[in-house]
Amino acid sequence: MKNYKKLFLPFVVLVCVLFHTTPLHAGGGYSIRSCFNFSEGLAPVLKEGKWGYIDHSGTIIIPPKFQEPCAAQFSEGLAAVRDGRKIGYINRKGEWHIEPQFGVCVVKTITVWGSSFHHGIARVLIDGKWSYIYKSGEKVFEKSFQRSFSVSSIGPGRRYESPSQPGVFGFRRWVSPKPPGAFGFTEGLARVCIDDGKKRGLGFIDTQGTIVIKPRYYSGKGPMRGPGIGPFSEGLAKVMYVTDKEFNPKGPDKWGYIDRFGKFVIKQQYAQATEFSEGSAAVAIGKKKKDGEVYHRWGYIDRKGKWIIEPRYNWARKFSEGLAAVRIGSYQQGKLGYLDTTGKMVIDMAYKHACDFSEGLAAVKSNGKWGYINKQGEWVIRPQFDGANEFAEGLAGVCLDDKWGYINKQGGFIWKPTK
Questions:
Q1: Given a cut of 70, is residue 108 above it in pLDDT?
Q2: Is 27 a domain residue?
C-alpha cells in the first residue's frame, strides 16, 4: 500500500493540474473533487450527469445541460463548457459567447480542455495543438504548441507475484499520463514546450507569442517525469533541471527559482519546492539516513533564498492568510497543524489532513471526516463530510456519499449534494 500511494499521489496531482482545479491537499493525501468553487457569483453543479450553474442562494441560473467532465468556473464573464466533442465558452446567461469549436485532449483516461480567460486570453486546442485566443475567439498569435510534453513517463519497475499463479513472478511498470505542451498565462507569461524530436525543453512566452525565457527547463527523473518549471508567482518561477546546452535535459536534479528574465535568483538546491505565496516558499532538502534512504525536511525561504523557518518538517504547504499547514511524522502516523510566519505553532498538530485557510476558515480532516476550523483552531463546522473544498465568496463545496453540494459558513446547505 505504501508503494501504491507513492505512485498514485503524484498522478492525482497531475490530474488536478490538467483540470485547472485544486486537490484537497493533506500532507500527501489528495481527493479529486467533483465540484468547483464559486467565482463571479456562480458555481458549477452536477445533476443527473449534466453540469449547470447556481447562484449564492442555490437557485439554478443556467440549467444543467452540459456534458461531463467539462464545466469550468467563470472567469472574466465566461466559462468553458463541453457540447458533444467540442469545447466552447458561455456567458452568465448560458448563451454561447464562443461557439463550440475547440478540441478535447484525451491523455490516457484523463480529458483535458482549455483554460479559463485571464487578462483576456485563454488556452484552447485547435487542430490537435494548443493555441491562445482572445474573447472574440480570434487567435492571439499564429504560433501553436504540441498537445503533450513528449517525455517518457514510465515509473520504476516493481517485482510482483501473480495472484492466479503463486510462485510465478513478473515485472510491472507504472506509466503516467503526459502533461500538456502549453499552459495558461500567469503574471503575463505562459509555459510552453518545444520538442522537435531532437531538442526539447520548457520556457515562457509573453502575450505576443515571443519567447522571453528560452526553453531549457526539464524534469526527467522519478515516477512523474514532466515539466520542470512552475508558473510565475510573485515575480518568481520554480525550475528544475537546467543545462548550459540549449534543450539538452542534463543537469542538477534540484529546484531553484528564476526571475522574469530567466536569471537564477535562488540557485538549484531543493529536492521539492512550491510557488511563492505571501513572500515565502515552502521548500524541502534531501537528507540521507544511515541506511542510505533519502528523506525530506521542509522549511520556508524568502525571495533571496534565506531560511526564515528552518527545515524540520516532514511536509509543508504554502502560506495562506498568514498561516501554513505543516506535518511532523509520516503520512500514515503523523499529524498536521498550522504555524505563523515567525515559525510559531498557533494551531496544534491534531489533524490527519489540512488545507489552506481561505476567508478565515480551513478544511481539516479528523477521525475520518472533514470539517472547518478558524484561525484559533476552533471548530466552526464540525467534521461530517467525506470531502471539502476551500471557501470562496462565503460558500464551499462539500462531499457526502460521493455526491457534492455547497454549504455556507454556518454549515447549512444552499445546494444539497447531487451527482
A1: no
A2: no
